[in-house]
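Help!! Second protein's tokens look totally different from the first
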Amino acid sequence: MTDASDALADALRRDAAALLQQYRSGAWVPCAEERDLARMQWNAHSLRANLREILAAVRAGRLVDVLDPAVAVAEQAGAATADGTLLQLRRLVDALTAPLNVVGEGSTGVESGTGEAAAAGADS
């Protein structure tokens, strides 16, 4: 990867981690369409195609700000910086696509840990 690609991957990893933290704290709640977008296939071609076809409501959301630059990073898959960033994105997506658990008011409604355990295990 080039220095510019490394910088993009690092910024994207930080943004994905921040969005995941905001989701877990309840500061950000994705709309249903954003959750659907998170369920797409994770390769550069699929990301690019799905981002071209998204609804205006999703385009205005927070998730697309993280997924849009992910296309360039996904094209560099195999490089250490890119792979670390894609893992952080996978953690975010796993949290968004985990089975919903209806709990008390103020909760994000996500069973904690279901996605991250799988992502961490896949990295081992």
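Here's the second one for comparison:
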Amino acid sequence: MKKNLFALFLILLSTVAFSQEYKAKIGKSACECFKKVKAENPDPKTLETKLGFCIINAAEPYAKQLKNDYNLDILRDDSSETGNLIAALILKECPDLFMEMMENEKKDDTSEKSSERSVSGTVTRIEKDGFVAFHIVGEDGNLTKLYWVTPVQSGLDLPKVYPTLLHQKVTARYYRNEIFDAGLNAYRNLNIISALKKD
């Protein structure tokens, strides 16, 4: 009986050790890839893409274990759970590099936000084709088309009241971003609305 318990203990111990070992390997592999990518000094968009590939390439050999242990399919699941798990593994293996990357991402977000523009005017048209698009004619007579793609800061319950904004005066903040247009099979720049208030 003691031999059976001891054998069971050894099996459990080796399973736990293997479980910890593969997670450490994912973290180490991703960190090594991050260092190589960082050394190339790519532009921010290329950096983001390459870091994504680093994570996938590091985790892919252990896809079965990740599926069994966490019920995550790394090639199909783009949830925050997957990102959080892999980030935790990377943070454990190379905290300094990880924190530096996160700091750079915050700087990129800040610079993107600082490039926000604003427009005040009348909503002359509201399109509802895929994304909602507001056509706003500013006080200077220029037309600005703003796409509602992400959550919008507003004191209004926008999903409920946006149709009532037609012919209303509003002030909106927006930024330009590239979005993939399947119809054109290419990226195009769009004005993405970030905040809206009724004047």
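Reply: Different proteins will give different token patterns, so don't panic. The helical segments are 2-40, 44-59, 63-70, 80-93, 95-114, 158-161.
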